[in-house]
Design goal:
The chain has about 120 residues and is mainly β. It has one helix and eight strands, in the order H-E-E-E-E-E-E-E-E. The strands form two sheets. It has a four-stranded antiparallel sheet with strand order 1-3-6-5, with no helix packed on it. Strands 2-8-7-4 form a four-stranded mixed sheet, with no helix packed on it. The N and C termini lie far apart (about 50 Å).
Length: about 120
């Protein structure tokens, strides 16, 4: 039974055809944050292929969301992470998407940050 739970968890954390498994949530609730005060979120992942992988690009839903990542290849079984800086200029609820484009992977990985920006 524990094997089934672990297998289901791995399937839940990675997309079909995905070259990575996320080592934490892919949707992060930031709660209430202050306007013009950057908040940082780290998304760790593991390369689950038999080859080194690289991130070609990361795109975000607005200019208030800025990604940082290593351009170095991630060896099979190794881990790396993506750092997201969210710096809101407007108040109110937000839900921002992040798309991670891994070399030779058909679909991008999808990440989200959401919360409420206060004055």
């Amino acid at each position: 039974m524990p094997f089934v739970v672990i297998l289901f968890s791995l399937l839940f954390l990675s997309e079909p055809g995905s070259k990575v498994t996320w080592l934490g949530p892919t949707e992060v609730e930031l709660g209430s944050i202050q306007k013009m005060k950057p908040v940082y979120v780290r998304f760790p992942f593991r390369n689950v292929t038999q080859q080194a992988i690289t991130i070609d690009n990361i795109r975000t839903g607005c200019g208030c969301t800025a990604p940082e990542w290593s351009e170095a290849a991630v060896a099979p079984g190794d881990t790396s992470s993506i750092l997201i800086e969210f710096d809101a200029e407007k108040t109110g609820y937000f839900r921002q998407w992040i798309r991670v484009y891994i070399h030779d992977q058909r679909s991008p990985e999808r990440l989200w940050v959401e919360g409420e920006v206060l004055e």
